[in-house]
Amino acid sequence: MVAADAPVYGQPPVRLARYLAHAGVASRRSAEALIKAGRVTVEGVTVTDPARDVDEQSAVAVDGRALTGPEPRVLYAVNKPVGVVSTARDTHGRPTVTGLVSAPGLRLYPVGRLDADSSGLILLTNDGELANRLTHPSFEVPKTYIATVGGGPVGERALAALRRGVELEDGPTAPAAARRISAREIELTIREGRNRQVRRMCAAVGHPVSELRRVGFGPLRLDGLEPGSSRRLGAAEIERLRAL
Description:
Oligomer: single chain
Structural class: alpha+beta
Shape: elongated
Distance between the termini: 21 Å
CATH superfamily of the largest domain: Pseudouridine synthase I, catalytic domain, N-terminal subdomain
Low-confidence stretches: 1-11
CATH class of the largest domain: Alpha Beta
C-alpha cells in the first residue's frame, strides 16, 4: 500500500503555499514564487501572500485553472538516462524525466536536479512538503554517486582531500564519504546540493569526471531499476525518507 492519503483541508484552514504544494502544483518554495508572481487567485481575486489561509471551499486557481483540492500523494523512483532533463517541461523540446512515468491525472515534478549529462536515481512526486524536506540543505539528505574519472589512477591523496572537503569557487565543501571502486572509478556520498558539485569536487582533486551516475538517494538505491524505467515507492520506503 502506498501512502497516498492527503491532508484534510478546511479543518483547520492551511496557508495558501501549503495548499498548492499538496494539490501537486509545485514544491512549497516554488508555490510561494507562483503566488508572489501574481499567478494565483482565491475567489477570483489575485493573492500575493503565501501565508493567506484557505481551505477546500476557497476556489483557488493557478493561471486561471481551478484546483480541485489535494491529489493523492505519490513518490516515484526513476532511473534517468543521459540526455533527459530533470524538469517537468522543457522549452527546447528535450525529453523530460516526467515523461518517463505514467501517472495519468497527477502533476509530478522532480525532487531536486540531476544534470542532463548525468544518469541515475531521481525522485518524482506531487508532495511538496516531502520534496522540500528532501532538498532543503538543513536536512542534509545523503546522495551517492559513482564517477568515472580521468587524470590517471585514483590515489589516496585525492580520496583524502574529498573526505576532508575541497575548496570550490563558491566556498569549501563539507566532508564527503569517498572510496575507490577501481583505478578510475570513485563512489562519493555528499550531503549538499550545489550545482554540478560532484563534477567540480572531482576536478578539484585532479580527476575530471567523464561519466556520472547517481546510485543512492537517502536509503533508496538504484539496484534493479533499468535505465528509463520507474517504480512507485511503497509506504515503508516513503516513511524511511520522511524519517531523514
